[in-house]
Automatic annotation (TrEMBL):
SMART domains on file: WD40
Keyword set includes Transport: yes
Localization of this protein: Lysosome; Nucleus envelope
Name assigned to this protein: Nucleoporin SEH1
Underlying gene: LOC117648292
Biological process per Gene Ontology, one example term: cellular response to amino acid starvation
WD repeat residue numbers: 8-40, 273-305
Family classification: Belongs to the WD repeat SEC13 family.
Chief location bin: other
């Protein structure tokens, strides 16, 4: 089911982030060695190093790709208090049979932060070319490129203040116009007395401001948050948010009940504690938002999926060497039908069913029992009128009469049907 490939990344220090492009055919890595590397996949599914350069003067925490509609564009953030925008350009046309020279150029440096920039994410394509950054000074900064053909010009549109240092953020990618732009941010503040470590911000077109609408205080996320990710929303009326803390948590943000003053109905959909050992550092959704991948201190990658009871279970567990540690078809962990019908002994069912017997042959009916007749009107030929071929039981007598249609249209190649309620369908071709 799974196939693992080992890549010698040739980074000289710890790798902090790996990001795939929109099509999954290019990959970017960043490290504490201050460098960024770009890998391309060839026809044999091998990853080939295509570019490597020193991106910052400090550890590079995150790297992310822009939508391909805006070209081959990367964004990085670093401990050196900056975020950078990189664009790939292709040199002169090479001779036939040779590949063109591709180089990555720094288009701009975003230097508004006074502390380490911990995360950077491009916004949904529908909003244009926007970029959000967060830093340990507790500020979310949102930039926009007014001219997508000139990536050297970026404008700081908003500065959103958070009360806690920020460690990660995520955009809500929703295709519904009913959902305004939304950003969730997490904090790795170790003090549990400072309250919830997750905040939800929404953009209002009326006030043209980003406002905090939810803090997830009800679910009690007081541990440091290392990663956070909205599931792609392809039409759901609610949002799914994955949070990486000491374990994996999946939160549902739905519509509040009528008359409620809350913005969302927040529910902790899943907090799977089984099969986990160690802190969770990364969470990532598939493109449909149905499978969640998580990785942690134990060196394993786990895939989580919800069953028909909306219970999230680990369906696969991959070790660091690529071997499959666990594969759960989710049949053993799912509740049985009897458990679904009777979740506990005290519950009462509306209907009770008992097996009274079995009939192997419909013609073998015990005495005193009324057999259920089957229709003996059968068509003879493809376009001819149905014909009564008799009954198995003489007690039913002659065949029931065919009701005549109330209105008959006679013309060549027309089909005649009995009126509704007659229960008998008649088809034939008639000539006028």
């Amino acid at each position: 089911m799974f196939e693992a490939h080992s890549i010698n990344a040739e980074h000289k220090d710890l790798i902090h982030d790996v990001a795939y492009d929109y099509y999954g055919q290019r990959m970017a890595t960043c490290s504490s060695d201050q460098s960024v590397k770009v890998w391309d996949q060839d026809e044999q599914k091998n990853w080939i190093l295509s570019a490597s350069w020193k991106a910052h003067s400090g550890s590079v925490w995150k790297v992310t790709w822009a939508h391909p509609e805006f070209g081959q564009v990367l964004a990085t953030c670093s401990f050196d208090r900056t975020a950078a925008i990189w664009e790939e350009i292709i040199g002169e046309t090479p001779p036939q049979g040779e590949r063109g020279l591709k180089t990555w150029i720094r288009r701009t440096n975003l230097v508004d932060s006074r502390t380490s920039v911990t995360d950077v994410k491009f916004g949904p394509k529908s909003l244009g070319l926007q970029l959000a950054t967060c830093s340990t000074d507790g500020v979310i900064r949102i930039y926009e490129a007014p001219d997508v053909m000139n990536l050297s010009q970026w404008t700081l549109q908003f500065e959103v203040q958070c009360k806690l240092p920020c460690s990660c953020l995520t955009w809500s990618h929703s295709f519904s116009r009913l959902h305004p732009p939304m950003i969730a941010v997490g904090s790795d503040d170790p003090n549990p007395l400072n309250g919830s470590k997750v905040a939800i911000f929404e953009y209002s077109e009326n006030s043209r401001r980003w406002t905090k609408t939810e803090s997830l205080q009800s679910i009690g996320v007081t541990e440091p948050v290392h990663d956070i990710a909205f599931a792609p929303n392809l039409g759901r009326s609610f949002h799914l948010l994955a949070i990486a803390t000491k374990d994996v948590r999946i939160v549902t943000l739905g519509s509040p009940p009528e008359g409620s003053s809350q913005r969302f109905n927040v529910q902790l959909t899943a907090q799977p504690e089984d099969n986990l050992s160690g802190t969770v550092w990364r969470v990532s959704w598939n493109i449909l938002g149905t499978i969640l991948a998580s990785s942690g201190d134990d060196g394993c990658v786990r895939l989580w999926k919800a069953n028909y009871m909306n219970s999230w279970k680990c369906i696969a567990e991959l070790r660091g060497d690529g071997t499959l540690a666990k594969s759960d078809s989710s049949t053993s962990s799912m509740p049985t039908m009897s458990q679904v019908a009777a979740p506990n002994q005290s519950s009462t069912n509306r209907y009770n069913y008992m097996k009274l017997g079995a009939i192997t042959n419909p013609t073998q009916v015990p005495k005193g029992s009324a057999a259920i007749p089957t229709s003996k009107w059968q068509p003879i030929g493809r376009f001819q009128r149905k014909t009564w071929i008799g009954s198995d039981y003489g007690s039913y007598g002659s065949p029931p009469p065919l009701e005549k249609p109330s209105k008959v249209l006679c013309s060549k190649n027309h089909r005649l049907f009995s009126p509704p309620g007659a229960g008998i369908l008649s088809e034939h071709d008639s000539e006028s």
